[in-house]
Amino acid sequence: MSDAAxxxxxxxxxxxxxxxAAEWWDLDGKFKPLHKLGPARLTFIRDTIxxxxxxxxxxxxxxxxxxxxxxxxxxxxLVAEPLARLGARVTGIxxxxxxxxxxxxxxxxxxxxxxYRATRAEALVAxxxxxxxxxxLEVVExxxxxxAFLGVVAALVRPGGxxxxxxxxxxxxxxxxxxxxxxxxxxxxxxxxxxxHRFVTPEELADHCRALALEPLPPRxxxxxxxxxxxxxxxxxxxxxxxAARRR
Length: 248
Known about the structure:
The protein is α/β, with parallel strands linked by helices. It contains 9 helices and 9 strands. The protein has helices at 3-8, 11-18, 32-52, 80-85, 97-109, 121-126, 146-154, 172-185, 202-211, and strands at 68-72, 89-93, 115-117, 131-137, 157-168, 214-216, 220-225, 230-234, 240-247. It is globular, with a radius of gyration of 17 Å.
């Protein structure tokens, strides 16, 4: 693997998730936290897309009809599937082949037509593909070089399109909750899932976007209510947050 390839992909991370391919749709399995995050993330994604691309979108059950969406690091399709149900033409990519196979099998069983590919974003850039919406959810914190990764990702956003990112803030609070709490105490995630030094602050992420001619919007936090066992959108970006940016 070239130095450039190493900058945007950590093979150990890919292997870790590839080994868990069969568990993506187990609601009580290793990916239970992502299932719990789902409603809050999807609310932000849907509302952001509609606000940014209203002229191309409709309303109702298929509100995203006519829009092309790329889900980078799509995993088992936890986000790709609901977006397809909303009418979007969804392409999901992931470098883990077993994960893509599991995603494709599940989508077919649901009667959904999703273009899943076991590939990397660089291949789509080389093919000069662009999309109305590009997603990279819970991916940024797993890549060695955020600037290099976003440079590739940004090239896939068409003029006027939108990039949507979700990741973890680099704060003491995130270390305590996302690593110590989630991995060692509550055992929500396998130990070693996250590396705190790879977390990125909203300010850093916004600066990366601006350098790539993407205009960032204000970030939104996601917070967990342990009593209700639900995640919700919040002004608190101290741990989990989402950030959208529009191509100028």
